[in-house]
Each structure stands twice: as C-alpha cells, then as structure tokens.
Write a structure and sequence with these properties.
Layout (H helix, E strand, L loop, with lengths): L3 E11 L2 E11 L4 E5 L6 H9 L6 E6 L2 E2 L5 H5 L2 E4 L12 H12 L3 H14 L15 H13 L5 E5 L7 H16 L3 E5 L3 H7 L2 E6 L2 E6 L1 H4 L3 H6 L10
Parallel strand pairs: 3-8, 3-9, 6-7, 7-8
Antiparallel strand pairs: 1-2, 1-4, 4-5, 9-10
Helix pairs in contact: 3-4, 3-5
The protein binds adenosine-5'-diphosphate and magnesium ion (2 copies).
Length: 243
C-alpha cells in the first residue's frame, strides 16, 4: 500500500463552509512531490489534516494501508514531520545540539544513543560544525535545517515542507534541494508546498495542484506545467533567478 493515502477528504473550519471537497491522493515510499495552488486553495489545510491538527468532516487518511484517523497529533508527529514556512521565530539561546536532541529526550532515549543519532543528523544537515552555537546565531537557511534536523532525528516516514526554499540564496537553495533529494533516496517521502516551477521541474516526481479545495492536477511536472490554464489557476511563476 502507499505510505500515505488521502481518500475523498473533505473539511471546513466552520459549519457550512467547506474548504476541502473530496481530495484524494496516494504517495509512495521515497516519493518527492510538490503541491501548488493559489493562496487559500487548501494546501496548508491538507497538511494540518495529515498531521492531525484537525479531523476531516469526511474521508480518511491512511498510512501504509492503516487508517490513522484516530491517532493523536503526538502519535503522528514522530512519523510525519511538518516543517513550517517561517523559522524566524527561532530566537532561543538554546544550543543547536540540545534543540535537535529535545524530541529524543522527551522519548526517554539513553544519553549515549541520543548523542550518536543527533551527531549523525547534524552531519547530514551540514550543521555539525555549529552544534554548540545558539540557534539565534544562525542564518534563515540554517534555522530551517535545524527544524528539519529536529524532525529527522525522530526518523519520520514523511516530511512535509511549506515553501522549503523561500528566502534562500542560490547556494542554500541548491544545498537544501540536494539535501531533500538525498532524504527521498533514503526512502523518506518528501512533500513540498511550493510555487517554484524550476524546483518542480528539477526535483519533483509529481506536481499536485489544488484549486478551491479540489485537486485539479496530479501528474509529472512537465505535463502539469505544459497546461496554461493550470499554471494560471495555481498562480505559478517562472523563476528565472535560479536558471
Ligand atoms: P493555502 O495554504 O493553500 O493558502 P489554506 O489551507 O490556508 O490555503 O486555506 C484554505 C481556506 O481555508 C481559505 O479559504 C482560508 O481562508 C480558510 N482558512 C484557513 N485557515 C483557517 C482558519 N483557521 N479558520 C477559518 N478559515 C480558515
Ligand atoms: Mg496561504
Ligand atoms: Mg498555506
């Protein structure tokens, strides 16, 4: 079965105001996909339902064939990591090592095992040289990688990123994308919410487009992006910056 399956998912924040109308989706292990759509299309809402912040009004969410509808946010959090759009709120003086180790401490893992795993993940994320720095001293891109590292130590099956490359310069853009590609090759399913057509063409295996709470496209990026009507309804933009 797929790692993640959404079956006919509907939802509204308020009564009689549905914002998702029967969204279905299947994602395989290690797949790397992008989700696009205009502001208000329902991208964040889908993510919040997957993570369990809200319950769908109808439809179901399955992981590896099992309905996770009654699993708590906490139960899902170790299997599905959500990387929020803006890590700039990270102003704490906590050392990077401790920030990334926190989730494992909460789990009650032994100190020596924590140290081993955190060091491995910090290496993978290019953060090992900064392990004793305070989080507040890092750049935007580095903070984003701290957020990702905090999730990776928990060994998730799925990672969802809201605009993973927003606000990053050319070098960090490429670093971030190659890093995410590496994760997908290790079998982690990567979902990127993005409007960046270059990113989709270069890195996504599929592009899913939402419009007004409905899925209007789900295909290889070059096919989706060859449709002018879809580009328009998703408000997609050519980014010449990274070519
Ligand atoms: P996107 O992430 O694609 O920009 P959202 O999922 O944030 O879209 O929003 C989908 C719809 O749900 C929009 O109409 C938005 O106004 C509405 N919405 C989002 N969050 C809330 C909320 N907390 N309460 C009420 N309506 C919301
Ligand atoms: Mg929005
Ligand atoms: Mg959003």
């Amino acid at each position: 079965p797929p790692v993640l399956e959404l079956r006919d998912l509907s939802f509204g924040y308020e009564k009689n105001h549905p914002v998702l109308h029967g969204v279905s989706l299947k994602l395989g292990k290690g797949e790397m996909v992008s989700i696009a759509g205009k502001n208000g299309a329902g991208k964040s809402t889908v993510s919040k339902l997957i993570c369990g912040f809200y319950r769908p009004s109808s439809g179901s969410i399955l992981m590896n064939g099992r309905d996770i509808g009654s699993d708590s946010i906490k139960e899902r959090a170790s299997r599905i990591g959500f990387v929020m759009q803006n890590p700039n709120h990270m102003i704490s003086k906590t050392m990077i090592f401790d920030e990334v180790a926190l989730g494992l401490k909460v789990r009650g893992m032994a100190e020596s095992d924590i140290e081993k795993r955190v060091h491995e993940v910090l290496q993978v994320c290019g953060l090992y040289p900064f392990r004793n720095w305070p989080v507040s001293a890092l750049s935007y891109g580095q903070k984003k990688r701290v957020t990702i590292a905090s999730i990776l130590v928990l060994q998730p099956e799925i990672i969802i990123l809201d605009e993973p490359t927003a606000g990053q310069d050319y070098r960090h853009y490429n670093e971030m994308m190659e890093f995410l590609l590496g994760l997908s090759k290790q079998g982690i399913t990567v979902i990127m919410i993005t409007h960046d057509m270059h990113l989709m063409l270069e890195y996504a295996q599929r592009t899913i487009v939402l419009a007004d709470g409905r899925k209007i496209a789900d295909d290889r990026p070059e096919r989706v992006l060859s449709d002018k009507a879809i580009i328009h309804s998703a408000n997609l933009k050519e980014t010449s910056l990274y070519r």
